[in-house]
Amino acid sequence: MNGLGIKELTQPELTGDWEWKLGRIEKGEFTRDEFMREIAEMTRHMVERAKTFDSDTIPGDFGVLTAACPRCGGMIRETYKKFQCGGCDYSLWKIVAGRQFEPAEVDTLINEKQIGPLTGFRSKMGRTFAAAIKLNDNFEPEFDFGQDKNDEANNEPVDFSSQQSLGKCPKCAANVFDHGTSYVCEKSVGPDKNCDFRSGKIILQQPIEAAQMQKLLNDGKTDLLKEFVSNRTRRKFSAYLVAKEGKVSFEFEKKVAKPKAPAKKKAEAEA
Ligand SMILES: [Zn+2]
Ligand SMILES: [Zn+2]
Question: Helix, strand, coil shares of the chain as percentages rounded to 5?
Fold first, then answer.
């Protein structure tokens, strides 16, 4: 959890988008004329909208979420820029760090208090990143990078030379090391990041020991871990962690059908 999430989420995404484009102009990937044309276009559009503004009649084919407002239980309606509760002032921005949320994703976020990791976010520097989103105790969305401090802005080189690699990064095959509150790909930190693989040392209250991370990286799967606690139900559950498509995800224990029958038979046979 980190402060950046809130800042990013409440800042109008427009400014971020313009900053990103200005960055591209500097790099010669976007021309000043294109930029000015977009601004003129957008200004015309905004003035047009402001003239005809009425929150109930903004044109668009916007629906209603199936999830109820987490604060008041009211109905949440999609509007031009937000998902807005009709019963109180609770709302969620539709576009967060350059990524637009689908209504179904917001349903999941509200119902489960978290969603993701989702891909396709873009930092102010134009770098794409993946992150989970969580609702905090106030039901405000925050990025969750599985670490206490977001080091997006921290470009200090990290010295892993005193550490043994835990295994190969499932995304880029570089080495994975213990780093603060996470296990990270060596290419996901420092000034020359080109990977974003990292996995928290505590996932849903289940501590992930280095030995388990080694198993995950080398065998693709941890032992069955039994101390996960669901954010939604607050119940404990067991799962394996598996590395799939460069991400760490859960694999649930396969329930054995009628576990008692064979045991009974065996007991009878022995008796
Ligand atoms: Zn509400
Ligand atoms: Zn990597």
Answer: 30, 30, 40
- Cα–ligand 2 centroid distance for 141 (angstroms): 27
The structure tokens listed for 77 are: 């309606």
Q: Enter the tokens of residue 202.
A: 């505590």
Q: How far is the CA of 39 from the centre of ligand 2 (A)?
A: 38
Burial of 85 (0-12, 13-18, 19+ CB in 10 A): buried
Nearby residues of 56 by Cβ (< 8 Å), 6 or more positions away: none
Residues with CB under 5 Å of ion ligand 2 are: 169, 171-172, 174, 185, 187, 195, 197
pLDDT tens-place string over residues 95-122: 999 999 999 999 999 998 988 778 788 8
User: Residue 95 Cα, ligand 1 centroid: separation in angstroms?
Assistant: 20
Q: Is 217 exposed, middle or buried (0-12, 13-18, 19+ CB in 10 A)?
A: buried
Looking at residue 12, its pLDDT comes to: 54
Secondary structure, 3-state, 208-253: CCHHHHHHHHHHCECCCEEEEECCCCCCEEEEEEEEECCEEEEEEC
User: What distance in Å separates the CA atoms of residue 65 and residue 152, rounded to the nearest whole number?
Assistant: 32
Please state, in angstroms and rounded to a whole number, the distance separating the CA atoms of residues 64 and 60: 13
pTM, to two decimals: 0.41
- Structural element, H or E, at residue 3: helix 3-10
